Amino acid sequence: MLIYTTQFVFLEQLKVRTNAQKTRMGYNGYSNIFRSLEFLASNLFFKSLDKSEQLQYSPDSRGYDGSCQGIILNELYYSIIF
């Protein structure tokens, strides 16, 4: 589940950083394109990692141990019938 949310955190950071670079004319000319992509690639990984660590604090504070305990549907079905 944490991997699933980390993907969206990564995509959000990509959108925010790309938008910031566009507003600062970061993609104007070939040298600026490569410099902006370099900066984006190096910074994006670390910022996404920091955000995903911050997201992990919430389940940890609630005692989440990594296991998903769900309702067994057969038992639920039989308990509704009887």
Which secondary structure elements does this structure contain, and how are they paired or packed?
Blueprint: H1 2-23, H2 30-61, H3 73-81
Helix pairs in contact: 1-2
At a glance:
The chain is an all-alpha fold and 82 residues long.
Distance between the amino and carboxyl termini: 34 Å
Beta-strand segment tally: 0
Shape: rod-shaped
* Main pleated sheet: none
Helical residue percent band: over 70%
Q: Return the string of H and E elements.
A: HHH
List low-pLDDT spans.
none
Secondary-structure-derived class: mainly alpha
Question: How many helical elements?
Answer: 3
Query: In the residues, how many domains can be counted?
Result: 1
Spatial extent as radius of gyration: 21 Å
Subcellular location: Membrane
Keywords: Membrane, Transmembrane, Transmembrane helix
InterPro entries: ABC/ECF_trnsptr_transmembrane, Cobalt_transport_CbiQ
Membrane topology: Multi-pass membrane protein
Give an overview of the whole structure:
InterPro entries: ABC/ECF_trnsptr_transmembrane, Cobalt_transport_CbiQ. This protein has 82 residues and is mostly helical. It is built from three helices and no strands. The longest helix has 32 residues, at 30-61. The radius of gyration is 21 Å and the shape is rod-shaped. 2% of the residues are buried.
